[in-house]
TrEMBL record:
Signal peptide residue numbers: 1-22
Official protein name in the record: Carboxypeptidase Q
Assembly and oligomerization: Homodimer. The monomeric form is inactive while the homodimer is active.
Compartments reported by the entry: Endoplasmic reticulum; Golgi apparatus; Lysosome; Secreted
PROSITE patterns assigned: PROKAR_LIPOPROTEIN
UniProt lineage: Bacteria, Pseudomonadati, Bacteroidota, Cytophagia, Cytophagales
One BP annotation, GO: proteolysis
Cellular compartments per GO CC: extracellular region; lysosome
Domain PA: 124-223
Keyword terms: Aminopeptidase, Carboxypeptidase, Endoplasmic reticulum, Glycoprotein, Golgi apparatus, Hydrolase, Lysosome, Metal-binding, Metalloprotease, Protease, Secreted, Signal, Zinc, Zymogen
Organism: Roseivirga seohaensis
Pfam families: PA, Peptidase_M28
Molecular function (Gene Ontology), one example: aminopeptidase activity
Peptidase M28 domain location: 249-437
Amino acid sequence: MKKTLCILFSAALVFTACSPKADDQATVFKKINEEVLANSKAYETLGDAIETIGHRLTGSENGAQAEQYTYDLLKGYGMTDVQFQPFEVESWSRGDIDVQIGAKGKLETVPAVTLAHSPVSADVTAEIVDMGNGVDADYEARPDAVMGKIALVYIGTLPDSPKGTPGLHRSEKTALATKYGAIGIIIINQVDGGVLLTGTASVTGSLIPIPAVCIGKEDGMALKETLASKSQFASIKMTNQSGLIKARNVIATIKGSEFPEEKIIVGGHLDSWDLSTGAIDNGIGSFAVLDMARTFQALNLKPKRTVQFVMFMGEEEGLLGSRFMVDEAIKDGTIDQIKYVMNQDMSGNPAGFGTGGRPEAEAFFKAVGKEIMAIDSTTYTNAVSNGAGLHSDHQPFMLQGIPYTAPSSRLDRAIYGCYHADCDSFDLVNKEHMVNNVRFSSMMLYALANAETLPAKKLNDAETKAFLEGHDLKLKLQIGGDWRWDN
């Protein structure tokens, strides 16, 4: 009957109203929407994991418990192909810290947090030098300024900075300070209220040679003001632990119905820092991925391409789990099978999806977005962003030319004040935002895995180099040791 009716309509209507593929996808989207709204477990399982496990630091007992928790959860959802991907990493955990700052001989204790991969033991006292934003231009203007001294830098970009000042990661700022001879670095947080931030200060995931600490915004800005008129000194003492440990990515696979060798990966890092429970970074992302897997399994979805749901470990300590997955795929010759990556890092309440810097993919995301908006246009506005960045688990894949996407999230601004901080707790989590992310991301994931033609192709080596240069990522990758080209 459907075929007979289609013959009566114009060619345009046949495509829009009678296309079996369009109808099939719209039907699947409706089923996803109904399933997630009725049965989502993302919020509840994240709450349970936080209550029973706590933080999820890679290499810790908590981290191992989190790996097993998610493995068991995926199995409990009825998924049959769930695997651990074990890897060995250089683990780091914080010990004691004492930071004192003031005039020479009159130092006073200042609240501070050790940045990850600082030395296992450090005891330095030296003059502090204000290096502003801590970017290349600051050091090139005064190349000997921090030699044998302690650099003070702002974690973000200062309000009065010159236009075009690069926004470097804290690890890149630490690498520059080390390069120019600093024996320590103090990084000022940008959040009001004395919030202390942690995170890695290493671009490689290995120990750095100098101690790196974070102090609160108010203390840091007052110190900058003092340094404008008089000398200040700092004493940094710390002990930390480091050594090789074992960690595990958790991978659940749904085999493709037509192109099983072509893989679409949706991943989020399961690990967190240890100052709090990592509810936002990255509980909301990783537990959304788990619920996307539950949704696909509950609906028995079998898209054309294989879908892998991945819990990455070690992201916070240098993208360790995702780097390992990519390295293994290169070694066993399966890297070309990975066709697309969806990264879920601090993702919630999506307004749309990003192209990962691939403008040729915009039409696809806009077209699929219209179908999502047909289901819910109150939250999903079909916003498409075209930027490409670093420092999350998409990076190792992007460096191999693999296209990626991520939700364009609209999180409450207050949440970002607790990024990597001791206030990143479950009370920040918005259940509705998590449910929205699972709904819309599951729809987009299905569209990618079932597309006739993917929105962007894997770039070859020369194209990847040009892509990275075009997005001004060369310098950052050089600082991080990830630039593999000669020039």
